[in-house]
Structure formats: structure tokens, C-alpha cells
Amino acid sequence: MAGTQEVYDLVVRGKAKLITAAVNEALEDGGDPTELLNSMISAMDEVGVKFKNGEIFVPEMLVAARAMKKGVEVLKPHLATGVAGAAGKVIIGTVAGDLHDIGKNLVAMMLESAGFEVIDLGVDVPKEKFVETYEANPDTKIVCCSALLTTTMPALKEAVALLNESPFRSKIKVMVGGAPITQEFADEIGADAYTEDAASCAQKAKELAAAM
Ligand code: B12
Questions:
Q1: Rounded Cα distance, 175 and 110, in Å
Q2: Per-residue b/e over 91-127, b at no fewer than 16 CB within 10 Å?
Q3: Digit-coded pLDDT (tens) for 71-82
Q4: Fewer CB within 10 A of the terminal residue: the chain, N end or C end?
Q5: pLDDT under 50 in the chain at which residues?
Q6: For the CA atoms of the chain, what is the radius of gyration?
Q7: How far is the CA of 107 from the CAs of 55, 87, 195, in angstroms?
């Protein structure tokens, strides 16, 4: 679809000013919101490859991220389906030292769409903050931690360890994710669940919450 390709290109080129109109147009032309979202995710993959190959640098990654965020804002109402808050409360954040939030934001958006009330702690979240936020919201069912850098995988491990030591551990489920995370790592650090993407995270969260 032409609109999907255009949206992809605008993210890769970091054209935040043009993307709102392009996404709106693609939707008006009957474009599928999920397909448009997936094209933006693939665009970020291309940006990552270009960065790795030294073709672009941090500022270009940043403008691509901004463009994606703008595009996602337009898509958000088209992806939401569930009744807000009905499925329970989720705390989410990107771990200490890590500033990547696009994936975490998508997970938060999908969880909201699945009917969860999401408390989003943002990026660079100290491990204690996850615990304090639970203590202030003891009706929370799931805590989600995201890490995008191999160098912040230890911070993810520490955050999960602190949650695992907490007196309320049996009352919550801990989910982890992010590009470098694997099922094996999730098992090793004692998380309850890992999924590869935002849609499967929301699905898994629903299953976990229903079984609690
Ligand atoms: C955009 C970007 C940035 C932006 C971030 C802007 C923002 N607001 O997020 C900026 C410019 C700030 C940035 C900075 C850096 N970045 Co960067 N960045 C990226 C890039 C291109 C895209 C990330 C992204 O948004 N992907 C799209 C989203 C949708 O995917 P995702 O995050 O993986 O999320 C999905 C899943 O993982 C999952 N998920 C995510 N969280 C969770 C949580 C749970 C609970 C679950 C279940 C699932 C889940 O669901 C999501 C949706 O499906 C990646 C390359 C890549 N392909 O990942 C590099 C990349 C992650 N960055 C990298 C690097 C090296 C850096 C810097 C160190 C660069 C530097 N020299 O300064 C800094 C570090 C800053 C810091 N302290 O965090 C490397 C990491 C390498 C490594 N092995 O760790 C990558 C892989 C690029 C590369 N190929 O080299 N970056």
C-alpha cells in the first residue's frame, strides 16, 4: 500500500512534521492501523541498522524516533478497543540508564487497548521506583520492565530481583521485554513472563491477570 510505504520512509528520514498528515491520509484511504504501526516498527529497525553501519548518528536516530512518536499519536485512537481500566492496573517503565521509550510506549498503548489502566513511569526508572509505585497502588496486577540496551540488561535484572524480594511478590506478575531480552534471560532473572512484542505482551498480560 502506497500510504504504508510513505509512512515507513517518513520515519526513516525523521520527517515528524509530515507524518501526521501522511498517517491520516493513509487511514482515510482505508489503511489498516496495525499495518501502519508495523511499518513504523520496521522503519525503526532500518534506522538501527543504519546506525550500526555508521551511516547515521544519534541525532538522526532521535529525529526518526520523534517522527514515529507523532505517527503513533495519530494511530492510538484507531488501535484502542478495550474498556479503560477494566482489566486491572499495570505499572510500566524503562529501567535505569536506558532512555529508549518507543517500544515501552507501544506496550503501554496495547495494554490500555486491552483494558488495563497503565501507570507509566517513563524512562531511566530506578528499581526502587517500581516498588514504591506498587506500594502506592497495591491493586496493581502486573509490573512491566523494558530494556533496550545490552548494557542495561543488568539494571533489568536488578529491578526484577528487588521485586522478587518484596513482600508483595506473590500478588503481582512481573513481565520483561525489549529487543535484547530473551525467554532464557527472563527465566534466569526470575520474571514471570517475556514476550517479543507489544501485541503479545497485552495478550499475555490479560491471561496472567485473568488467572490471578
Ligand atoms: C530510536 C533509538 C534511539 C533513540 C531513542 C529515542 C526514544 N525516545 O526511544 C536515541 C537516539 C535516544 C537512542 C540512544 C542510544 N541508542 Co538507540 N536505538 C534506537 C533504535 C533505532 C530504535 C529503538 C526503537 O524504538 N525500536 C522500535 C520499538 C517499537 O521496538 P522495541 O523498543 O524493541 O520494542 C518492542 C519489543 O522489544 C517489545 N518490548 C519493549 N519493551 C517491552 C517491555 C515488555 C514488558 C515486553 C513484554 C515487551 C517489550 O515490544 C515493543 C513493541 O513491539 C534502536 C535500533 C533497534 N532496531 O532497536 C537503537 C539501539 C537500541 N540503540 C543503540 C545504542 C547503542 C544507543 C546509544 C548507546 C547510542 C549512543 N552512542 O549514544 C544511546 C543510548 C541512550 C540510553 N542511555 O538509552 C543500539 C543498542 C546496541 C546494544 N547492543 O545494546 C541499537 C540496537 C542500535 C544499533 N543497532 O546499534 N537510540
A1: 14
A2: bbbbbbbbebbbbbbbbbbbbbbbbbbbbbbebbbbb
A3: 999 998 998 777
A4: C
A5: none
A6: 17
A7: 29, 15, 10
> Kind and range of the H or E element at 203?
helix 198-210
Atom number, ligand 1, closest to the C-alpha of residue 148: 61
Report pLDDT digits (tens) over 36-49.
Answer: 999 999 999 999 99
- Its CATH architecture, for the domain 88-210, is 3-Layer(aba) Sandwich (3.40)
Cα of 47 vs centre of ligand 1, distance in Å, is 10
Under 8 Å between Cβ of 108 and 142: no
Residue 84 has a pLDDT of: 74
The arrangement of secondary structure in 2-79, i.e. its CATH architecture, is Orthogonal Bundle (1.10)
Q: Answer yes or no: is the C-beta of 45 below 6 A from any ligand 1 atom.
A: yes
Domain segments of the chain: what residues?
A: 2-79, 88-210
pTM for this structure?
0.95
| Type and span of the H or E element at 88 | strand 88-94
**CA 100–ligand 1 middle distance (angstroms):** 5
Residue where the block lists cell 498528515: 21
